[in-house]
Amino acid sequence: MALIEASNLYRAFRDAVAVRDVQLRVSAGEIYGLVGPDGAGKTTTIRLLCGALKSGRAPGSEPPMVRIAGYDLSRETEEARLRIGYLPQRFSLYEDLTVLENIRFFAEARGLAPKEWRPRCMEILEFVGLNEFQERRAGYLSGGMKQKLGLAAALVHRPQVLLLDEPTTGVDPVTRQDFWQLIIRLVTVPPLPPHFQDENGGDRGGTAVLVSTPYMDEAARCTRIGFMSEGEIIREGTPAEMRSMLAGRVLELNGAPLVLLRNVVRADPGVEDVQMFGDRLHLRVSAGQAEQVIERLKGAISQAGGEIERLALVPPQLEDVFMSLLEAE
Questions:
Q1: What pTM was computed for the model?
Q2: What is the pLDDT of residues 57-94, one digit of tens each?
Q3: Residue that is last in its domain, among 242, 272, 303
Q4: pLDDT of res. 201
Q5: Are both 96 and 67 inside the same structural domain?
């Protein structure tokens, strides 16, 4: 079942078009990743999906449409919003309130009755791993714990759709890992957690997650990825499908000195792009040219006084694909 359906999304700020002709369809049980450079339109797209911004109509196009769990966002706004959990880039906590008091505020703001909010809050705090910190003031939480509290607040009303705007930016790698384990549990672990069940204990059709992220290791965890550039989704597919775009076209080069190697590589006619990957180089070569490039570079680097530790064809990474897409755009 598609819980997020959107078509012809368009938004302009004065003369700048932020989002143009975006089409999206995310089903229950999916994690859809929006990736792309800063200014690509990811945040604006998420705000259009949750109703924080209203989509315009692009000249000559069909009217925009957003449906959340079957509800039209423009005509059935409240019903649609009740099914959305939204975590913006800058989640606003009440730092003088405790963790539990913050969750209670968001629960009551979402219309939960007094007899409902406490058991619901305790379930969610246990789910995100903050049950031991319920009496701690939010201002004394670490950055990662604040993000988990933001996730708990987004989940308090049992949403079927979860919209996350770069939720792990600025937190440490361990916390990022923990946060993603929570997201994956939301869509993959049956039965659903108690706060995702209806009043009779049955699940409500699963959860759909749409997340924007600047991290390629996070994008690789998604069910599908949409790559955005200049307000448009220019390529969409599973992580495997995206990587297959450059199959047989990525070489990895280890050696020294790197500056010399990079200059020699750039001069080869079969090399389309060179990127630094830590202490090595990734080379994108023309289709069908990998073996020829390897042979030429061995001679050219030796002649220039460089040393090769390893030069071989490797499976492409998502970073390779996205750099290729960016360059094409």
A1: 0.90
A2: 988 889 999 999 999 999 999 999 999 999 998 878 89
A3: 242
A4: 41
A5: yes
**CATH number of the domain residue 207 falls in:** 3.40.50.300
Residues 8 and 60 in one domain: yes
Tally of domains within the chain: 2
Rounded to an integer, what distance in angstroms lies between the CA atom of residue 40 and that of residue 22?
12
What are the phi and psi torsion angles at 316 (to 5°)? Answer: -65, 145
Residue 73, helix vs strand vs coil: coil
54 and 143 belong to one structural domain: yes
CA nearest neighbour of 261 among 306, 227, 298? 306
For the record, the structure tokens of 84 come out as 């959305």
Residue 81 is encoded by which pair of tokens?
């919003």
Domain containing residue 301: 245-328
Q: What is the DSSP letter of 204?
A: -
* 42, 46, 47, 50: CA torsion to nearest 10: 180
- Spatial distance between the Cα atoms of 82 and 87, rounded to a whole number of angstroms: 14
Per-residue tokens: 258: 């790197």
* Structure-token pair, residue 153: 């607040």
pLDDT digits (tens, 9 = 90+) for 251-309: 999 999 999 999 999 999 999 999 998 899 999 999 999 999 999 999 999 999 999 99
CATH code at position 289: 3.30.70.100
Question: 242, 261, 286 — which closes off a domain?
Answer: 242
Give every CB contact of residue 235 below 8 A, 6+ residues apart in sequence. 226, 227, 242, 245, 325
